[in-house]
Write a structure and sequence with these properties.
- The structure holds 2 protein chains of 2 kinds.
- Chain A contains no helices and 11 strands.
- Chain A is mainly β.
- Chain B is globular and about 40 Å long.
- The termini of chain B are far apart.
- The chains are: A mainly beta, B mainly beta.
- At the A-B interface, strand 5 and strand 10 of A face strand 5, strand 8 and strand 9 of B.
């Protein structure tokens, strides 16, 4: 079955860049039917979709308006994974971050989550 | 951006009782893109229902979804001990996914 394995630091300093990776097994980041998302969850903001990437003859990217100026999601076909970069973080970016797969109409596979704290 | 409002915020029920959870959208949502998730403490959300009424793989038939347009409902016909959790609705539209704020189903 499809599994997503998340990795990355749990502590990031304010103004620096948050970087997380999601390794895919059982599917391909280049799938023509799936998309690969990053979502975060915090007590103050609830579940918040951040963005996604997907391949349909070429690569596509969708980002939430709230983070559009600070986010990059990159696929890595050589390692079958995708990554999240969130720049210029503040304590408001403290959250549990999840990577997920969506199959157009539903989001069916989730990583276990990574708790990221923004603090000096 | 479509906003999803869930009610009630908390539902206090006993095992064996019926739970009815509501999700209201700020504008019409395609039923194809309305889903429900269950989340337990320390775990990622789990897909229960997609396409407003289709159960995901392995989901018991005591869970059912219904609705269209701006009003959607998740019903748990008879609560089992493992069903006490937080439930979220989610929708996709205009290249964006949004979630409701959640309904907590707690043991009375």
């Amino acid at each position: 079955q499809v599994q997503l394995q998340q990795s990355g630091p749990g502590l990031v300093k304010p103004s620096q860049t948050l970087s997380l990776t999601c390794a895919i097994s059982g599917d391909s980041v280049s799938s023509n039917s799936a998309a690969w998302n990053w979502i975060r969850q915090s007590p103050s903001r609830g579940l918040e979709w951040l963005g996604r990437t997907y391949y349909r003859s070429n690569w596509h990217y969708d980002y939430a308006v709230s983070v559009k100026s600070r986010i990059i999601i990159n696929p890595d076909t050589s390692k079958n994974q995708f990554s999240l970069q969130l720049n210029s973080v503040t304590p408001e970016d403290t959250a549990v971050y999840y990577c997920t797969r969506d199959e157009v109409t539903y989001m069916d596979v989730w990583g276990k989550g990574t708790t990221v704290t923004v603090s000096s | 951006e479509i906003l999803l409002t869930q009610s009630p915020g908390t539902l206090s029920l006993s095992p064996g009782e019926r739970a009815t959870l509501s999700c209201r959208a700020s504008q019409s949502v395609s039923s194809s893109y309305l889903a429900w998730f269950q989340q337990k403490p320390g775990q990622a959300p789990r897909l229960l229902i997609y396409g407003a009424s289709r159960r995901a793989t392995g989901i018991p038939d005591r869970f059912s979804g219904s609705g269209s347009g701006t009003d959607f409902t998740l019903t748990i016909s008879r609560l089992e001990p493992e069903d006490f959790a937080v439930y979220y609705c989610q929708q996709y539209g205009s290249s964006t996914w949004t979630f409701g704020q959640g309904t907590k189903v707690e043991i009375k």
